């Protein structure tokens, strides 16, 4: 009898604690009512707590909020009867069917818990790769293999649709994979509902995950004749090939050439980035430093294709290397206000006012906003050997690091700098002196992101 009193008291305390706990969590537990559909109020509360849109909130941002402590509850959706968040507290209820205590009868010991292990809350999976969904059900009334597990997903403002349905296995596990395409790249809310043969239903809370896209999707080798989405070759540029390897040639080894090659479709994201390219400049045969002028890789933060085209038609060649539109010299024919990042490979010393090369030697430099006269960071560098060199450009906040063939040549900060992303734009020029100006193996390394 003492045991029963203790059990009843303990159960009362436990129930009281859980009730208080549930109050703090708003309507999370209401999702686990026997209703198959979430009630509107609880959905809105979840939306608010997780930074998600509610059913009517078209203008709310559909992005998971990592800072929200409520999110820590995302995968612990045991119901009140289950006892605690670990979902294994059913054993605390005495399994004594002969007990005459009204609180402990057949109805009270019937428990079902359902939880979602995967996908993890706010996780991102790149489009084209499988997303694993895994949930677990435990039911005291039926064998788990008799429980129907229904997975529904919804987009920001849409109603849920069934993604997958089937019986749990004998361990209560429901697991499958689904591949989302690039056009389906967005945030989703997924929910798992378990339904027993007698109609008892329990649902997890919604878990938000994202399908993201990597715009440049790996290395661009330019080996195929077809360059791929968005590439534009303008003026004297062309794709070259030795029959096996292909690359972009900006000028060819000829005088008074200017070439532009840019991508008018894929935009690099703002924020920290690593960009890798292979470059080659010089004359065939014995290396000499007598060639010119040089070339550059630009990331132009143009609003749209039209602004990009305006920039492409405004850039000046010669010592402006096909990227200059601003500053004392290259803006002298009409300055253009642009937001751009440039790395130049300069093989001709310009002393003209407004270009002001900082060294008479060949140099690699970081310039910004269309001004070849503003060498923010630079380094004398061997360039005109007509050999391929691997260049890596990395930004971390206002720090820019450049390495050539794995040796760091620039590593410094730029005041008020941040990488703003945009369109990839290569340019090069020759004049009274010439060189090849070749680019290959472009690789953009950035975090996969969910499109806006
Ligand atoms: Ca290639
Ligand atoms: Ca030179
Ligand atoms: Ca120069
Ligand atoms: Ca320069």
Describe the structure.
With 452 residues, the protein is mainly beta. It has helices spanning 2-24, 40-50, 106-109, 305-314, 327-330; strands at residues 112-118, 124-126, 130-139, 148-154, 161-167, 173-179, 187-195, 201-203, 207-212, 231-235, 238-241, 246-249, 258-268, 273-282, 294-300, 340-346, 363-368, 377-380, 389-396, 399-404, 407-413, 422-429, 436-445. One calcium ion (CA) binds next to loops. The site of one calcium ion has 7 residues, from loops.
Task: Give the arrangement of secondary structure elements.
Layout: H1 2-24, H2 40-50, H3 106-109, E1 112-118, E2 124-126, E3 130-139, E4 148-154, E5 161-167, E6 173-179, E7 187-195, E8 201-203, E9 207-212, E10 231-235, E11 238-241, E12 246-249, E13 258-268, E14 273-282, E15 294-300, H4 305-314, H5 327-330, E16 340-346, E17 363-368, E18 377-380, E19 389-396, E20 399-404, E21 407-413, E22 422-429, E23 436-445
Parallel strand pairs: 2-9
Antiparallel strand pairs: 1-3, 3-6, 4-5, 4-7, 7-8, 7-9, 10-13, 11-12, 12-23, 13-22, 14-19, 14-23, 15-16, 15-22, 16-17, 17-18, 19-20, 20-21
This protein binds calcium ion (4 copies).
One calcium ion (CA) binds at residues 344, 346, 357, 365, 372, 375.
